[in-house]
Amino acid sequence: MVILRRRDGAEGIIPGNMRNPFTGLKPEMAQSERTQQISETALVRITRVWKAFTLPGLISMIGVSKEGCDEVTQELMSRMKNIEYTAKDVEEFSKRLVTLQEGEENFPLKAGLFLSALINNAKDEDFVVHTAQLKRKPTCLGYLNTKNVVVEGGLAWGAAYRMITGTFEVKGNIGKAGGRNMDCGELIIRGNAQKELGKQMKGGKISTYGKVVSVGGDRKGGEIHLEGETEPYIEATRDGKIYKKGELFQDGHGR
Amino acid sequence: MCAHKQLEPREKMFKLLTAVRQRYHDAPLEDVLGRTIPKNLVFMALSYILKRNHVLVGEPGWGKSTVSKIMASAMSGLPYDIYDALEMRGHPGKYEEKVVGRFDYGKLGKEGVERTIWQGGIALPVLVIDEINRFSLDAQEAILQGKDTGRWNYNNSSLYLGKKPTFSTMNQKGENGHNGMLPALLDRQDLITEERYYTNMNHETYNLMKTAVEQDLCSPEHTKKVLEALSKDFNEFTRLISSSRIVRARIEVEGRYEPVEPISDDEYRHIITEIDGVDVSNDAKLFLQAFMAEINYSNRYGCKRETDPISDDTHDRNYAGVSVHSSFSPRSVMAAEQYSKGLAWFLGDTLALDHVRTMIPYVFALKAGFTDDYRNAHGADERTDLEILHLAKKLVADVYDRYAKSIQPVKNLIAKIQKTMAEPEYELLTEGQRKSRELLTKKEIDDMKPEDHDHPLMKDFIMAMKSIFKGEKAFYE
């Protein structure tokens, strides 16, 4: 038997094994039954991996090599492999990055490679990430991308670097070397692109709707569609096509 | 006496485990909630701190007994060779007399006095039991009470030595993994881990590790003294044991080996207080309750009983109870909660659902008694875990999926109950006012019926709510 005090001061008795199970719980807020409160834990775990991860000295000091990026990606994937998360968690994490950017010396590269690994490691196929709120935009976001990603905001250099497949749409502007070395898939840039767009690309398609400073050289394939009002400088190349507003403008060797 | 810097207890624990892994036992590093830790050693350390019964299973020769004694020695400071000499070794021909105590036959024959000579193994800070499943049922019965309560009985004598942690080993053979273990003893096993192959790359270090154990954790002279005392005077023996925290694990720091002190009594109390104080999220509590409800609820038989057949009721087939023969006892619930809190403490977290999800399989695997149907359903799974651990993890994942889908209505009910309980003027309000303030109305309470809801947890909460808000006597604080 458990004796409990009533609000009027009298003592009441409730049957022995029926201790009030609601007093030990923290306050709950009623929610729509479609909301899943428990996905919070995945976000907490992703944030924990972020906090525990530091870019290796070499990659952050002398810049980015594909070997360096591969090493970082593999390490991140192994740390994430046991976390079950959804595209929604990735979106929430990208919003949370605004609180994580202070004090991170190599924030742009860390954020870019981290989000890329997070997206590629997930089971879902379609993702939205938010970068508009970030002071320093992620670099190399979309590294080895295989999914369909929409970036709400801009990116620094190396967007969709070595992209493998899928679509990668950036609603804002991108820095230099967007789509560098990409294999396949489609990179869509709604804003402006800096120089060396599509440098060394091997295949796939890049569509731009804003201004482009220059189209990168040494391309081995792929198509670049310039849909905006722009006259970019075009670097020398071996192969690859450039279309201007739907019409073939250059096929193969550049000027 | 101690010239070393005083460490914070958790840091001490990290250091001790690092030392064990570095020098004495090459445990694999595993990912646990995003952190890479030697999981089996961490769980053993938690069993030591929480004074729980830990079972190590595995093939012969993979170091179950050795790591039990290494951990016991490093954590307690009592020499490894004392544990080695006094561990209880399971054998079908071994009876109570060789495990717990026996009559002093000389005294009995000469003076007719029934005096008990106790065995030394029961007085060690950690009970090390080798091949527990090979003991005769009589011997298991004798161990049962001592393990559970710290009180040892032999004939009319009774000796209280306090509750102690237990490291037991067993080879994983036979049906459902409990090779003839008494059901009551089985239910008292709190956690299971497996010692197994994980790499070929360290076979050359085995001898080095054995030497390191001999160098750092053994003290043959002292052990001899302690064993001599045991053969003469049990009280002197226990006094010596309690003052024998004399060995230190050693850890490599910048090329030098530094001793790591064992866990002192003060540190032990400090850790227990911290673990007790770990903040617990609602999801952690509710998931544990959901797991308990799913295993123990039966629409057909009222509750889960090992003696009942597996239910083929349509409702029951949707929940985890039909996958196992055993119930999930309150003892197991308490173990799961304590280990989850311990893990959260070790990782520096507050207790979330993930900690509970991580620990339940290790708590339940040995006792679950998986049905043949469930085993067959997962027979072709790729796995790295022991079969029962793999099945337990699958079972927890199944429960989690249903929890994720059905918890929100439960939480909404809790929110409403909490709001209603916090309303001081409730009795003065009309039903209409209650409804407009989103409080539970008397009609709602009456209309809500457990049988209208599917998830057993919801059924339990409705019954609890009805019991608390009973008619005019409702609303206790």
Tell me what you see in this structure:
The complex is a heterodimer of chains A (255) and B (477). With 255 residues, chain A is an alpha/beta fold. Chain A is built from 5 helices and 12 strands. In chain A, α1 packs across α4 (87-96) and α3 (66-80) packs across α5. The longest helix of chain A is centred in the first third of the chain and has 15 residues, at 66-80. Chain A is elongated, with a radius of gyration of 25 Å. Chain B is built from 20 helices and 15 strands. Chain B has helices spanning 9-24, 39-50, 64-76, 80-86, 96-99, 105-111, 137-149, 183-187, 205-217, 220-232, 234-242, 265-276, 282-296, 330-347, 353-368, 372-377, 387-421, 431-436, 442-447, 456-468; strands spanning 30-32, 35-37, 53-57, 88-89, 101-103, 116-118, 127-130, 151-154, 157-160, 166-170, 191-194, 249-253, 256-260, 297-298, 302-303. Chain B has 477 residues and is of the alpha/beta class. In chain B, the strands form 6 sheets. Chain B has a 5-stranded parallel β-sheet. Chain B has a two-stranded antiparallel sheet with strand order 1-2. In chain B, β12 (249-253) and β13 form a beta hairpin. Chain B is globular and about 80 Å long. The A-B interface holds A 4-7, 12, 14-15, 18, 20-38, 41, 44-45, 48-49, 52, 78-79, 81-83 and B 31, 33-35, 281-283, 285-286, 352-354, 403-404, 407-409, 411-412, 414-418, 421, 424, 438, 461, 463-465, 467-468, 470, 473, 475-477.
Number of strands of chain A: 12
Radius of gyration of chain B: 26 Å
Number of helices of chain A: 5
Percent helix among the residues of chain A?
A: 10-25%
Mean pLDDT of chain B: 88
Tally the helices of chain B. 20
Largest sheet entry of chain B: 5 strands, parallel
Order of helices and strands of chain A: EEHHHHHEEEEEEEEEE
**What portion of the residues of chain B fall into strands of 2 or more residues?**
5-15%
* Cα Rg of chain A: 25 Å
Main beta sheet strand tally, sense and closure of chain A: 8 strands, mixed
- Round the mean pLDDT of chain A to the nearest integer and report it: 83
Label the structural class of chain A.
alpha/beta
The portion of residues forming beta strands of chain A comes to 15-25%
Give me the oligomer status.
Answer: heterodimer
